[in-house]
Structure formats: structure tokens, C-alpha cells
């Protein structure tokens, strides 16, 4: 898998986790696209709030269940589930933070990541759909280019026969009657000469 494909897959997982937060009534859900220089190993933070510890555990459970069932993805580590004040699910390429509302305000993780680009799930989803559509279009264009048959090569033009060859061919094609007429033309003077000689001999007698 190329780095671009890997990042695309990460985006799909983040979007699925954000949807799980929405399903369990998480509040103020935000996706932070981290600056590569500042992020270390992770590309995204998903941050959401719960009104009580039971809800925060329910949100974390729903995220785990959804990603495991639909993508076979498991968190590398899970912290804070027992108290439920701040549950952290580390999926390496992205990290989910489920806070109680007051704890989120206290730690203010969005402020600590000033270089990150904050996105709502709807904005993130729109960007993801646009990227997937662009990828599909590029794949279709590539397939169409491969399927297009190559233009047939033009047949080489016939070479005109050279003058001597053309004359030879013309002579071969000349009808036999013309050759006979030419022979007869040559024979006529000889016949006339012989006839005159014969007449002269008769006079002498």
C-alpha cells in the first residue's frame, strides 16, 4: 500500500469513528488534522465530549466495536476506561479522545495543537468523498486509456515502376499482331527487289 493509499484508509477509519461518536450522542465532535512536523506518529486526533462517565464509556465501546466489525481494526492501546473522564484509544495513525465536558475544557487539547486544522465530521466527510471521487475518476481514465485500440499503421505506398522496367513490361504486353506487322514491313522491300530482278531476266531472253 502506497503512503497515499495508507492515508486514505486512515481517513476512512477516522470518519467511521466520528460516526460512532455521533451515533452515541457525542458533543462538539472535532477532527484535528495534525501538522506532520508536530504530530509525531499520528495524523489525526478525534475529540468528542460526553455528559457523564457512562456515556463516555458507551462512546468508546461503540468506536471499538464499529472499527473492529467493519474494518478489522483494533486500538494499539486504550487508557482511562475505568474512570471514564478521559478515554484515549490509540490507533497509531489516529488517536481518539473521549472527554467528559468539564475535563475537555480543562485540558483544552485543541488549544495545545494550534498548528492542527480543525474539521467538523461533515467537513471531513465532504473532503473524504471528494478525494475518493477524484481517485475513482483517475482510475476510470486510466482504464479507458488502456482499452483504447492503437491507430492502425498506414500501408506503405506502392513504388512506381522504373522507366526501363515499364518499357519491358509494355513490350511483353504488346499484341502478337503488331510484331507480325513489323516483320512484314521489313520483308516487303526484299520481295519487290526479287520481282524487279525477275522482270529484267525475262526481257533479256
What does this structure look like?
This protein has 205 residues and is of the alpha+beta class. Helix content is 60%, strand content 16%. The longest helix is centred in the last third of the chain and has 29 residues, at 176-204. It is elongated, with a radius of gyration of 48 Å. The model has no long low-confidence stretch (mean pLDDT 82).
Question: Which secondary structure elements does this structure contain, and how are they paired or packed?
Answer:
Blueprint: H1 3-23, E1 27-33, H2 36-39, E2 44-50, H3 53-71, E3 77-79, E4 86-90, E5 94-100, H4 101-107, H5 109-112, E6 117-119, H6 121-147, H7 163-173, H8 176-204
Parallel strand pairs: 2-5
Antiparallel strand pairs: 1-2, 1-6, 3-4, 4-5
- Level-2 CATH architecture of the largest domain: 2-Layer Sandwich
Q: pLDDT below 50 for ≥5 consecutive residues: which ranges? A: none
Strand and helix order: HEHEHEEEHHEHHH
Strand order of the largest sheet: 3-4-5-2-1-6
Helix percentage: 55-70%
CATH fold descriptor of the largest domain: Beta Polymerase, domain 2
Largest sheet: 6 strands, mixed
Average pLDDT value?
82
Number of domains: 2
Give the N-to-C terminal Cα separation: 125 Å
Strand proportion: 15-25%
Overall strand count: 6
Radius of gyration: 48 Å
Net shape? elongated
The total count of helices amounts to 8
The fourth-level CATH homologous superfamily of the largest domain is Beta Polymerase, domain 2
Structural class: alpha+beta
Mind telling me the CATH class of the largest domain?
Alpha Beta
